[in-house]
Amino acid sequence: MSEGTRSPAAGRRPWVVGVSGASGTPYAAAVLRGLLAAGEDVDLVVSRAARLTLRDETGISFRDGHWSADLARWLALGADGRPGPAVPELARVRYWSAGDLAAGPSSGSYPVRGMVIVPASTASVAGVALGLSKDLLQRAASVTLKERRPLVVVVRETPLNGVTLRQLVALDDAGAVVLPASPAFYAGAVVLQDLVDFVAGRALDALGVPHGLYRRWSGELGGAARAVDHS
Ligand SMILES: Cc1cc2nc3c(=O)[nH]c(=O)nc-3n(C[C@H](O)[C@H](O)[C@H](O)COP(=O)(O)O)c2cc1C
Protein backbone atom coordinates (compact mmCIF):
# COMPACT_ATOMS: atom_id res chain seq x y z
CA MET A 1 0.00 0.00 0.00
CA SER A 2 1.44 3.33 -1.00
CA GLU A 3 2.14 6.05 1.50
CA GLY A 4 1.59 8.70 -1.17
CA THR A 5 -1.69 10.35 -1.94
CA ARG A 6 -2.96 9.44 -5.42
CA SER A 7 -3.69 12.92 -6.67
CA PRO A 8 -0.57 15.08 -7.05
CA ALA A 9 -0.66 18.72 -6.05
CA ALA A 10 -1.30 20.90 -9.08
CA GLY A 11 1.92 21.77 -10.87
CA ARG A 12 4.04 19.40 -8.78
CA ARG A 13 6.80 17.86 -10.92
CA PRO A 14 9.14 15.84 -8.71
CA TRP A 15 12.36 14.04 -9.33
CA VAL A 16 12.03 10.30 -8.74
CA VAL A 17 14.85 9.09 -6.49
CA GLY A 18 15.29 5.32 -6.62
CA VAL A 19 17.52 3.81 -3.96
CA SER A 20 18.61 0.27 -4.87
CA GLY A 21 20.59 -2.30 -2.92
CA ALA A 22 24.17 -1.36 -3.81
CA SER A 23 26.52 -0.18 -1.12
CA GLY A 24 26.48 3.61 -0.87
CA THR A 25 23.40 4.77 1.03
CA PRO A 26 25.31 7.98 1.98
CA TYR A 27 25.24 8.90 -1.74
CA ALA A 28 21.45 8.63 -1.72
CA ALA A 29 21.20 10.72 1.45
CA ALA A 30 23.41 13.42 -0.07
CA VAL A 31 21.38 13.54 -3.31
CA LEU A 32 18.11 13.70 -1.36
CA ARG A 33 19.42 16.53 0.85
CA GLY A 34 20.69 18.36 -2.25
CA LEU A 35 17.39 18.11 -4.13
CA LEU A 36 15.37 19.26 -1.12
CA ALA A 37 17.81 22.09 -0.37
CA ALA A 38 17.31 23.26 -3.97
CA GLY A 39 13.55 23.38 -3.39
CA GLU A 40 12.83 20.39 -5.62
CA ASP A 41 10.01 17.92 -5.04
CA VAL A 42 11.01 14.28 -4.62
CA ASP A 43 9.21 10.98 -5.13
CA LEU A 44 11.18 8.35 -3.20
CA VAL A 45 11.37 4.62 -3.91
CA VAL A 46 13.55 2.34 -1.76
CA SER A 47 14.04 -1.21 -3.05
CA ARG A 48 13.75 -4.23 -0.75
CA ALA A 49 17.47 -4.87 -1.03
CA ALA A 50 18.25 -1.22 -0.25
CA ARG A 51 16.70 -1.74 3.18
CA LEU A 52 19.44 -4.30 3.85
CA THR A 53 22.27 -1.98 2.78
CA LEU A 54 20.69 0.88 4.74
CA ARG A 55 20.49 -1.26 7.86
CA ASP A 56 24.06 -2.45 7.33
CA GLU A 57 25.49 1.02 6.69
CA THR A 58 23.43 3.10 9.15
CA GLY A 59 21.63 0.71 11.53
CA ILE A 60 18.30 2.16 10.36
CA SER A 61 15.40 -0.17 9.55
CA PHE A 62 13.44 1.59 6.82
CA ARG A 63 9.72 0.88 7.23
CA ASP A 64 6.93 1.77 4.78
CA GLY A 65 4.63 2.68 7.67
CA HIS A 66 7.19 4.96 9.32
CA TRP A 67 9.07 6.17 6.24
CA SER A 68 9.07 9.83 7.23
CA ALA A 69 10.65 9.28 10.66
CA ASP A 70 13.11 6.73 9.21
CA LEU A 71 14.05 9.08 6.37
CA ALA A 72 14.61 11.94 8.82
CA ARG A 73 16.96 9.76 10.89
CA TRP A 74 18.79 8.66 7.75
CA LEU A 75 19.26 12.15 6.32
CA ALA A 76 20.58 13.36 9.69
CA LEU A 77 23.56 11.00 9.38
CA GLY A 78 26.82 11.96 7.73
CA ALA A 79 28.85 9.53 5.65
CA ASP A 80 30.86 8.63 8.77
CA GLY A 81 27.67 7.47 10.46
CA ARG A 82 27.60 10.37 12.90
CA PRO A 83 24.80 12.93 13.16
CA GLY A 84 25.74 16.15 11.44
CA PRO A 85 23.94 17.25 8.29
CA ALA A 86 20.97 19.56 8.66
CA VAL A 87 17.80 17.63 7.86
CA PRO A 88 15.78 19.45 5.22
CA GLU A 89 12.03 19.88 5.40
CA LEU A 90 10.48 16.60 4.23
CA ALA A 91 7.11 18.02 3.18
CA ARG A 92 8.27 17.92 -0.46
CA VAL A 93 8.86 14.16 -0.31
CA ARG A 94 6.25 11.67 -1.45
CA TYR A 95 7.09 8.08 -0.64
CA TRP A 96 6.03 5.09 -2.71
CA SER A 97 6.47 1.47 -1.67
CA ALA A 98 8.75 -0.44 -4.06
CA GLY A 99 6.09 -3.12 -4.46
CA ASP A 100 3.41 -0.62 -5.49
CA LEU A 101 3.28 -1.06 -9.24
CA ALA A 102 0.17 1.15 -9.38
CA ALA A 103 2.10 4.09 -7.89
CA GLY A 104 2.32 7.40 -9.72
CA PRO A 105 5.83 6.95 -11.21
CA SER A 106 4.78 3.64 -12.82
CA SER A 107 2.96 5.62 -15.53
CA GLY A 108 4.34 8.03 -18.10
CA SER A 109 1.31 10.26 -17.63
CA TYR A 110 2.30 10.98 -14.02
CA PRO A 111 4.21 14.27 -14.14
CA VAL A 112 7.88 14.00 -13.13
CA ARG A 113 11.06 15.78 -14.23
CA GLY A 114 13.19 12.65 -14.40
CA MET A 115 14.86 10.08 -12.20
CA VAL A 116 18.10 9.25 -10.47
CA ILE A 117 18.97 5.76 -9.24
CA VAL A 118 21.43 6.23 -6.41
CA PRO A 119 23.17 4.01 -5.63
CA ALA A 120 22.40 1.72 -8.58
CA SER A 121 23.05 -1.99 -8.09
CA THR A 122 24.14 -4.14 -11.01
CA ALA A 123 20.80 -5.91 -10.56
CA SER A 124 18.92 -2.64 -11.11
CA VAL A 125 21.18 -1.83 -14.07
CA ALA A 126 20.29 -5.21 -15.58
CA GLY A 127 16.60 -4.80 -14.81
CA VAL A 128 16.40 -1.38 -16.44
CA ALA A 129 18.58 -2.33 -19.41
CA LEU A 130 16.38 -5.37 -20.06
CA GLY A 131 13.11 -3.60 -19.26
CA LEU A 132 12.21 -6.12 -16.55
CA SER A 133 10.20 -3.69 -14.36
CA LYS A 134 10.35 -6.20 -11.51
CA ASP A 135 9.51 -3.50 -8.97
CA LEU A 136 8.49 0.17 -8.92
CA LEU A 137 12.11 1.38 -9.07
CA GLN A 138 12.80 -0.52 -12.30
CA ARG A 139 9.39 0.33 -13.77
CA ALA A 140 9.83 4.04 -13.02
CA ALA A 141 13.26 3.97 -14.70
CA SER A 142 11.85 2.26 -17.80
CA VAL A 143 9.06 4.85 -17.90
CA THR A 144 11.65 7.65 -17.60
CA LEU A 145 13.51 6.28 -20.64
CA LYS A 146 10.40 5.74 -22.75
CA GLU A 147 9.22 9.28 -21.99
CA ARG A 148 12.69 10.60 -22.96
CA ARG A 149 13.18 12.18 -19.55
CA PRO A 150 16.57 12.45 -17.86
CA LEU A 151 17.71 9.26 -16.12
CA VAL A 152 20.94 9.24 -14.08
CA VAL A 153 22.29 5.87 -12.99
CA VAL A 154 24.85 6.11 -10.17
CA VAL A 155 26.20 2.59 -10.48
CA ARG A 156 28.26 1.13 -7.59
CA GLU A 157 30.16 -2.07 -8.11
CA THR A 158 33.76 -3.05 -8.62
CA PRO A 159 35.13 -4.74 -10.63
CA LEU A 160 32.52 -4.75 -13.38
CA ASN A 161 31.92 -7.85 -15.48
CA GLY A 162 31.27 -7.81 -19.22
CA VAL A 163 27.55 -8.37 -18.79
CA THR A 164 27.15 -5.24 -16.66
CA LEU A 165 29.45 -3.24 -18.95
CA ARG A 166 27.28 -4.13 -21.95
CA GLN A 167 24.14 -3.26 -19.99
CA LEU A 168 25.63 0.11 -19.04
CA VAL A 169 26.31 0.79 -22.72
CA ALA A 170 22.70 -0.17 -23.46
CA LEU A 171 21.53 2.37 -20.87
CA ASP A 172 23.78 5.03 -22.39
CA ASP A 173 22.39 4.20 -25.85
CA ALA A 174 18.87 4.56 -24.44
CA GLY A 175 19.67 8.08 -23.24
CA ALA A 176 20.61 7.51 -19.60
CA VAL A 177 23.62 9.17 -17.98
CA VAL A 178 25.80 6.44 -16.47
CA LEU A 179 27.53 8.11 -13.54
CA PRO A 180 29.76 5.70 -11.58
CA ALA A 181 30.04 6.36 -7.85
CA SER A 182 33.63 7.36 -8.42
CA PRO A 183 34.81 10.26 -6.23
CA ALA A 184 37.58 12.54 -7.52
CA PHE A 185 40.35 14.04 -5.43
CA TYR A 186 40.86 17.34 -7.26
CA ALA A 187 38.13 19.01 -5.24
CA GLY A 188 40.21 19.01 -2.05
CA ALA A 189 38.34 16.42 0.00
CA VAL A 190 39.16 16.57 3.69
CA VAL A 191 36.59 14.23 5.20
CA LEU A 192 34.59 11.25 3.96
CA GLN A 193 31.49 13.38 3.41
CA ASP A 194 33.42 15.49 0.88
CA LEU A 195 33.99 12.42 -1.31
CA VAL A 196 30.32 11.44 -1.04
CA ASP A 197 29.22 15.00 -1.81
CA PHE A 198 31.40 15.06 -4.94
CA VAL A 199 29.51 12.08 -6.40
CA ALA A 200 26.15 13.46 -5.25
CA GLY A 201 27.03 16.85 -6.72
CA ARG A 202 27.96 15.33 -10.09
CA ALA A 203 24.60 13.50 -10.07
CA LEU A 204 22.79 16.79 -9.40
CA ASP A 205 24.86 18.40 -12.19
CA ALA A 206 23.58 15.72 -14.55
CA LEU A 207 20.00 16.52 -13.50
CA GLY A 208 20.63 20.26 -13.90
CA VAL A 209 19.89 21.02 -10.24
CA PRO A 210 22.01 23.76 -8.65
CA HIS A 211 24.01 22.96 -5.52
CA GLY A 212 27.20 23.79 -3.68
CA LEU A 213 28.24 20.27 -2.76
CA TYR A 214 31.81 20.34 -4.08
CA ARG A 215 34.49 22.78 -5.15
CA ARG A 216 34.52 22.97 -8.94
CA TRP A 217 37.64 22.80 -11.07
CA SER A 218 38.88 26.34 -11.61
CA GLY A 219 41.44 25.68 -14.35
CA GLU A 220 44.41 25.94 -12.01
CA LEU A 221 46.58 23.08 -10.73
CA GLY A 222 47.25 22.82 -7.01
CA GLY A 223 43.82 23.78 -5.72
CA ALA A 224 43.22 20.45 -4.00
CA ALA A 225 46.44 20.66 -2.00
CA ARG A 226 45.68 24.25 -0.99
CA ALA A 227 42.17 23.24 0.16
CA VAL A 228 43.67 20.62 2.49
CA ASP A 229 45.55 22.71 5.03
CA HIS A 230 48.22 20.46 6.56
CA SER A 231 49.79 23.16 8.71
C1 LIG B 1 25.54 -5.18 2.34
C2 LIG B 1 25.33 -5.37 0.86
C3 LIG B 1 26.05 -4.63 -0.04
C4 LIG B 1 25.85 -4.78 -1.41
N1 LIG B 1 26.60 -4.01 -2.26
C5 LIG B 1 26.35 -4.08 -3.58
C6 LIG B 1 27.05 -3.21 -4.47
O1 LIG B 1 27.86 -2.37 -4.08
N2 LIG B 1 26.75 -3.28 -5.79
C7 LIG B 1 25.82 -4.17 -6.28
O2 LIG B 1 25.59 -4.18 -7.50
N3 LIG B 1 25.16 -5.02 -5.45
C8 LIG B 1 25.40 -5.00 -4.12
N4 LIG B 1 24.72 -5.83 -3.27
C9 LIG B 1 23.80 -6.85 -3.84
C10 LIG B 1 22.42 -6.29 -4.14
O3 LIG B 1 21.78 -5.84 -2.95
C11 LIG B 1 21.56 -7.39 -4.78
O4 LIG B 1 22.07 -7.70 -6.08
C12 LIG B 1 20.10 -7.06 -4.88
O5 LIG B 1 19.45 -8.08 -5.60
C13 LIG B 1 19.84 -5.73 -5.57
O6 LIG B 1 18.45 -5.57 -5.71
P1 LIG B 1 17.80 -4.18 -6.17
O7 LIG B 1 18.49 -3.75 -7.42
O8 LIG B 1 16.36 -4.53 -6.39
O9 LIG B 1 17.94 -3.23 -5.05
C14 LIG B 1 24.90 -5.72 -1.88
C15 LIG B 1 24.15 -6.45 -0.97
C16 LIG B 1 24.37 -6.29 0.39
C17 LIG B 1 23.52 -7.11 1.36
Biggest sheet layout: 6 strands, parallel
- The SSE order reads EHEHHEEHHEHEHH
Spatial extent as radius of gyration: 17 Å
Spans of 5+ residues with little confidence (pLDDT < 50)?
A: 1-5
Supply the helix-strand structural class: alpha/beta
Please tally the β strands and state the result. 6
Instruction: Give the CA-based shape.
Output: globular
When the domains are counted, the total is 1
Question: What do these coordinates show?
Answer:
This protein has 231 residues and is of the alpha/beta class. The chain has one domain: 3-Layer(aba) Sandwich (Rossmann fold), CATH 3.40.50.1950. Helix content is 37%, strand content 13%. Strands 3-2-1-4-5-6 form a 6-stranded parallel β-sheet, sandwiched between helices. β5, α6 (162-173) and β6 (177-178) form a beta-alpha-beta unit. The radius of gyration is 17 Å and the shape is globular. It starts with 14 loop residues before the first strand and ends with a helix. Its EC number is 2.5.1.129. Keywords: Flavoprotein, FMN, Prenyltransferase, Transferase. It is an enzyme of class 2 (transferase).
Give the SSE layout.
Blueprint: E1 15-19, H1 25-37, E2 42-46, H2 48-58, H3 67-75, E3 93-97, E4 114-120, H4 122-130, H5 136-146, E5 151-155, H6 162-173, E6 177-178, H7 192-207, H8 223-227
Helix pairs in contact: 1-7, 4-5, 4-6
The structure holds flavin mononucleotide.
